[in-house]
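question for whoever is on the cluster today: can someone run the full assembly for these? four chains, 1248 residues total. i dont have access anymore since they changed the login thing
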Amino acid sequence: MNNSIQKLFRGIIPPMVTPLNEDQTLDLRSLNLITEHLIKGGVHGIFILGTTGESSSFTTDFKENLIQETLRMVDGRIDVLVGITDSSLENSNYLAHTAEKYGAKALVSAPPFYYHLSQPELIAYYEDLADSLPLPLFLYNMPSHTNIFFEIDSVLRLSKHPNIIGLKDSSANAPYFQKLLYLLRNDPKFSLLVGPEEILGESVLMGADGGVPGGANLFPQLYVELYEAARQRNFSTLIPLHQMVMEISTNLYTIESGQSSYLKGLKSALFSSELCDDYLASPLSSFEKSDRNMIATRLENLQSSLSKLMST
Amino acid sequence: MNNSIQKLFRGIIPPMVTPLNEDQTLDLRSLNLITEHLIKGGVHGIFILGTTGESSSFTTDFKENLIQETLRMVDGRIDVLVGITDSSLENSNYLAHTAEKYGAKALVSAPPFYYHLSQPELIAYYEDLADSLPLPLFLYNMPSHTNIFFEIDSVLRLSKHPNIIGLKDSSANAPYFQKLLYLLRNDPKFSLLVGPEEILGESVLMGADGGVPGGANLFPQLYVELYEAARQRNFSTLIPLHQMVMEISTNLYTIESGQSSYLKGLKSALFSSELCDDYLASPLSSFEKSDRNMIATRLENLQSSLSKLMST
Amino acid sequence: MNNSIQKLFRGIIPPMVTPLNEDQTLDLRSLNLITEHLIKGGVHGIFILGTTGESSSFTTDFKENLIQETLRMVDGRIDVLVGITDSSLENSNYLAHTAEKYGAKALVSAPPFYYHLSQPELIAYYEDLADSLPLPLFLYNMPSHTNIFFEIDSVLRLSKHPNIIGLKDSSANAPYFQKLLYLLRNDPKFSLLVGPEEILGESVLMGADGGVPGGANLFPQLYVELYEAARQRNFSTLIPLHQMVMEISTNLYTIESGQSSYLKGLKSALFSSELCDDYLASPLSSFEKSDRNMIATRLENLQSSLSKLMST
Amino acid sequence: MNNSIQKLFRGIIPPMVTPLNEDQTLDLRSLNLITEHLIKGGVHGIFILGTTGESSSFTTDFKENLIQETLRMVDGRIDVLVGITDSSLENSNYLAHTAEKYGAKALVSAPPFYYHLSQPELIAYYEDLADSLPLPLFLYNMPSHTNIFFEIDSVLRLSKHPNIIGLKDSSANAPYFQKLLYLLRNDPKFSLLVGPEEILGESVLMGADGGVPGGANLFPQLYVELYEAARQRNFSTLIPLHQMVMEISTNLYTIESGQSSYLKGLKSALFSSELCDDYLASPLSSFEKSDRNMIATRLENLQSSLSKLMST
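^ ran it for u. tokens below:
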């Protein structure tokens, strides 16, 4: 069942936030803090320009700069995966070549998100795209934002393309993910990574190759240890780590009710952690002061629980 | 984390199919075969009149007869849970009292499914309902059919009602289920059961009290052993059993693409197993002959794999 | 284009509310008041047991009583159409025969609303149903409540059945409705009625055979005159009547944000008009006092504008 | 009710297709043919870079070139409106300033379409955007593609901004559009334009200021005459023109079932009309040959009916 050893990508690959200055320019000092924080935390790779990285809000120029700077800072110490999702194919291709030029290891693409492609249109798009890309490609299933779902048969078909090496599933639909794990269990090259950190533990227990947890921006070591405990099926270690992730999820991501609450909470907590400011790119915006204070208080409690847990 | 020992309901509680004659009357002979099959398979309870039981398609008279006959046949050997979901409250109440009269142990209710209730309307409905019911109540989260989702805060509120003792979650949204497991971890009476059998293993590993797997109509012992292996975190036993469930799921439930494919496949396989005929209640209908033959062939292969597995 | 003269059903056919006593029994006194109010207002028919009539919330016994009493009160003075929508086919058939027994002229059916039927399943269901019904049938497209949409091709197919005589479209999708009007323009028997009263005027202008406006429970004559003005393309009469309908819609139906706000507002306004009490059947409930008072004030203003308008 | 005379924008403003060469570059020769065709057809304005213009599929450089070339070709003869919809605010702002530089008269913006903004987030986004734009702005309600709906209260709030001058509604929800027409009937500056051409006639009859019909790329004069007939409430002229639009809609836009069928059909018909080639920008693609031939045949019939109609 578990062929992940041969696979190129496995483990914890956080979707890195994009730190911003007040004028919406890239905050290079914080970018450096966060990359060092992640590498020190033992993550297996870094994924930039995903949903958590607010990719859709930036121009191609901004993204090019972010790719260059991140790869310069990481300097080959770990793999960097670059999101190339864009409603324009030409933009996606440009980002892909930029990523290759500066040393990225793989690309990640959610479907173009304006027209709702049919499954045959989706397959055609990805077969064409993968043919032309200079680096291997992860599919990115993110139906809550793209309104397109990679159906099982489409993933099976695309998994046969030599340049498509995995899927990151952020659908939260665990039966769907189990079906992919089962149907692709004998594919030596196709990695299956899970998005929502609340199911990182159970997914890895059942054979997932890794995860892309947003909370790892804050506490990279926690998610790495959770991943290792799940791989080793060590429940006495796993369960308290999982509980800590649930405490993070239910405290930091749910201050507001909308889709942006997760991202606002995460950036606000990073601000309290002095890793970056809490500016979000338009069209999103930061919490008001009262919510920011609530995050600060909750984070303090979390850090206290966490330091007790990690020292044991 | 795991308080399930004190809880009233745990383990495998199959959603029993409703066997029909060609004229859409209840097939008593098959009902007896299936109940004996389930009890012999070691299930911890039987849930009648759920989605798999095609409850919404039957009149109240039909349901009353089914409740009476099932409880007569089971004769106290295991617990019977009765679905009372109906768009009419008076019908739900009548079914609840019928269930109590014939000896059921608990009731299960998905929201009334014509008007899309707001969360406050949903809470008010269930608080009123639970006040008046003669038996303890399971909430039933089935958004693909009811178009209403029991939001986290609504479940937390309803869990405080003394007569509401659990939730069966068929949303397939595993992060949602993990949040409920976490937030209700200290509630000694509230059971959390998972619907989709593809995630039965991982859910029980992480603390679910049990599951309501449709495939247990066919192979009750398989699901019971899977549940026990997951409870004991015995992976060498668990993984092959989980693989078998995935083989069932990907072979029997996906012949067609629509929502009814699962139910048609299940009843067709029960027909091949000589447990009941494959008639479905209107508005659903059986497979055409070619699909029925495909199910028969696939089932034969499954049974062969299964008998090898279970004898080891 | 306009063949409606030969059609059996045209004009204003209000979806009658179901007046209730506090104990959720049928309020016969108010039922009589409302039927007289509608007949006096000149409506072309009455549709009972639709969405506005809260059909899904009642038992079959209750519905049988309502059918019998309504037909007794109407006593042949105008046509009565009876909703037979139910998730159980046997219940639908029983209601159909009840309707025929007491003198109804036609039946109305929205799809069974628990399983989401595919379009072929939908067609098969209605062809079987129409074969067996003792009265002609209107299809009822109500996707916001049933989650099933009668696609254009399905309506064209079903329009060929001799016992299916029309469609009531409550989808609010006007391009869809125009396509049906165009594609069925040469069908001498198939009536197309529009649900939302906000587009009654424009729909009739463009060839619709009539409408099923909820507000006609309150002000039947207004909607009848609007219909006649639209049929005659008399804009100097039509526009002020349409403006009045918009004033009703934007003032009475939007107190709350949820799906039930329309029904609560309508029953609350009927209460202020002393036509019936404002009890709703479970799972819905009446407005709180402050909202009820707001409705009363708004209704007074509306009645004042209306009496000026209708006397001119 | 009808204040449209004072309004800046009214009448037929076609959403111009973007003609492409095989290598996905802008086809300047066809761009010239189409702009001349539209101007000769009497349209009241041209809207470039909308959904029909495949805006989301192009880079900012491509869009800048299209804006410049279109405005050069139009040369002040009619107003040009420019779509600035983009998931990145910086890109939208750049396009807005480009549009102003080359002489556009107004801007059109659908919401950023990756994150699903809440209504307060939507309002904040548009108030900020409108503050900074060099030209007046039309809101663009296109929920089938953006998954965001401009709710009534949000439109009322945004209509108060001095730089927001109208809404193009492509929701197909006619009751919603009627509510806006009613609630904004006394606003002298806010234009309400309707998207779907199937309801152009009825919308203008009831007070809409105009429409944005895709079919006007093919037959501009038809839609202009339909608009004028509706404004004058001249039904003997209006009805045959509306029937012709319905013939176009049901014949050309429905060859396939998906969302892209409209655009493929339109470009294929423009190809048969020798106005441009039928290349679509990735991720969409042209019809296969058999579908293209079907369009050609149907178009010939349409042209024959149309020439009879327009000569009378």
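summary bc i know u wont read the tokens: The radius of gyration of chain D is 18 Å. Strands of chain D lie at 11-12, 45-48, 79-83, 106-109, 137-141, 164-169, 191-194, 210-211.
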